[in-house]
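Comment thread on ticket #2218

A.B. wrote:
> Attaching the input chain for the structure job we discussed in standup.
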Amino acid sequence: MATQPPAPWYRHRWPWILMAGPAIVVVAGIGTAVLAVETDDPVVADDYYTQGLGINRQLAREQHARDLAVGATLQFNEDGTAVRASIRTSGPMPAALRLSLLPLARTAEKQEITLAPLAPGVFEGPMKRPQAGNWDVELEDGAATWHLEGAWRTGSPRVALGPNG
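C.D. wrote:
> Ran it. Output below, let me know if you need it in another format.
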């Protein structure tokens, strides 16, 4: 009886199955390394220290608004071309207000609106008709000593900001 010599290792399936796992990991690691080297990391800012100082200043302005018990109600007209702010404060009434509308969707543009006084505690200004969606609202006095934030959804005529909003 003649016996055949055993087949070489590469003719069996188990060595290939056992090598497939480490080979996939090596290919995935190389792909991850290439992706990490070739793409930007927008989370890390070059001026992170300056941005941190800016955040601290903004927190101080928000605390100052709480100390002065500043509250505001924003009223948007029906066609979205004007906004009126009514504010209450225990401090001095500002000469003007600065309103920022920041879109949550990247397809819309940020709006910076200067609100002029109409009567004591009432300010008004023109604006561009905003895209439908959700917006962050930031209101501050003209001298940037206090700061209020809130959220607004187009279609809603009012936004209350601060504790007395």
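A.B. wrote:
> Thanks. Noting for the ticket: The domain at 69-161 is CATH 2.60.40.10 (Immunoglobulin-like).
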